[in-house]
Design goal:
The chain is an alpha/beta fold. It is built from 8 helices and 19 strands. The chain has a 5-stranded parallel β-sheet with strand order 6-13-7-8-9. A hairpin with a 6-residue loop joins strand 17 and strand 18.
Length: 347
């Protein structure tokens, strides 16, 4: 519920079940995961014959009796993603579909399974599972985003079924499948706690709502905020092996930090000349890293710089009306002297 401090000296306040505790720690790894999209399409929530992949997987694992007698199982990909609201791919859904389909074939070989997809993305060695699914007569039917599948509840021969209509772009015809069970590949969406955690630790979110690293190539598990790291599906949708590898990277970065007794900071940080400071707070408002705070009361209020948080960007220098704050080794007198020396050579 609250975070204060900086790299090597964080204090996080945790509240749960009526108790409150402050935890002191040197580094933070954000791994809050993500949520499953709750579909509003394809009769989800209206018919008990419509499930998400996670719900289907749970039923398969528990050998749920509702799976007995299922003649046709239809699985629809890209539900809630790769559209105008969420233009990203959830990445795990295709492999998840193939895995569930193979397991369903193993436990209920009499069931006909249809997977309606836009693009199958079973990359890497997961391609082998896709081939196995094809060999086991699991049918893959492609659809275009302009012709999304349509679902309606009907009665056929005295039993309730879901009639799924989909246009096959290869045949150029609309196919109708009477499904006893419909499973939806619900998108992976950012955790509902993402914005709260981002505000607490002052770290950015990307346009999709997932956490954004400092640099995708050079600092893939770091944030711009020192001492805060990232791993797992909170970053973006990924398979478990990718999440584990990223967790190793984040843990390695933390060990690099915690293996030292002291935190080394840059020499180019801002400093305040107290006699000139009038405590207006303009520098504290301008600082994007929260490195400046006002201490004291009334006329004795002065700006104080935390050298660990300061990045030496110089924004505070520009807004200070009394020139009381300056960047060490880059103060006005030094810069003006350099300019005078450079100009004198030209003249």
């Amino acid at each position: 519920t609250g975070v204060s401090g900086y790299i090597g000296n964080f204090v996080t306040t945790v509240e749960s079940g009526g108790w409150k505790r402050e935890i002191e720690h040197g580094a933070t790894i954000i791994a809050i995961g993500a949520d499953e999209y709750r579909p509003s399409e394809y009769l989800y929530g209206e018919s008990d014959q419509v499930l998400t992949y996670l719900e289907l997987e749970e039923k398969i694992a528990k050998s749920d009796e509702t799976l007995e007698g299922v003649e046709n199982l239809v699985m629809i990909q890209c539900v809630g993603c790769r559209n105008e609201d969420r233009n990203y791919c959830s990445r795990v859904c295709c492999s998840h579909a193939v895995k569930n389909a193979l397991k369903m074939k193993e436990t209920h070989p009499e069931t006909d399974i249809y997977i309606l997809y836009r693009d199958m993305r079973t990359y890497g060695f997961k391609e082998e599972y896709y081939r196995e699914a094809s060999e086991r007569d699991i049918k893959f039917i492609r659809y275009e985003p302009e012709n999304m599948p349509k679902v309606e509840a009907v009665e056929e021969g005295g039993r309730k079924v879901l009639r799924v209509a989909v246009t096959d772009p290869i045949l150029g015809q609309e196919l109708a499948i009477d499904a006893d069970l419909l499973a939806l590949a619900a998108a992976v969406v950012p955790s509902s706690e993402s914005h709260k955690v981002a505000n607490l630790y002052k770290v950015p979110l990307g346009p999709d709502g997932f956490f954004k690293e400092a640099h995708v190539k050079l600092r893939p598990v770091d944030f711009a905020t020192d001492g805060v790291f990232l791993c797992g599906i909170a970053h973006y949708p990924k398979h478990i092996e990718e999440a584990v590898n990223q967790a190793y990277g984040a843990a390695g970065r933390v060990l690099t930090l915690l293996s030292h007794d002291i935190v080394t900071v840059s020499g180019a940080v801002c400093e305040v000349e107290e006699k000139r400071c009038m405590g207006c707070g303009a520098c504290a408002e301008a600082c994007t890293y929260g490195a400046i705070e006002l201490q004291g009361k009334g006329k004795r209020q002065k700006a104080v710089v935390n050298p660990v948080l300061c990045k030496g960007c110089g924004l505070c220098n520009a807004v200070c009306p009394t020139e009381a704050i300056s960047l060490k080794h880059y103060n006005n007198q030094e810069i003006i002297s350099e300019i005078d020396a450079a100009v004198s050579k030209i003249l």
